[in-house]
Amino acid sequence: MLESTLQITNVLGLHARAAAKVVSVASRYSARIHIVKEERLIDAKSIMALLMLGAACGTSLTVRVEGDDEQHAMEELTDLFERKFDEEQ
Length: 89
Hints:
Elements: E1 2-7, H1 16-27, E2 32-37, E3 40-43, H2 47-52, E4 60-66, H3 70-82
Helix pairs in contact: 1-3
């Protein structure tokens, strides 16, 4: 299992478009991918669960990935967060 803390750095936070990108990336992998905010653990392949986190700019999230393709999944998710979900703000 891989675990990493990633920060939301885009101005709008983890809103619908950003959450959809997370789901799109997570869904390409067979690994189980969970995101933890405080004590709440959610499935990163569920857009509703991601939106319910209410993760604003500056929020730190723990990403846990477990499975055969965990390394690639974690790398792609980390890159997505670092690119601010491809938003210019």
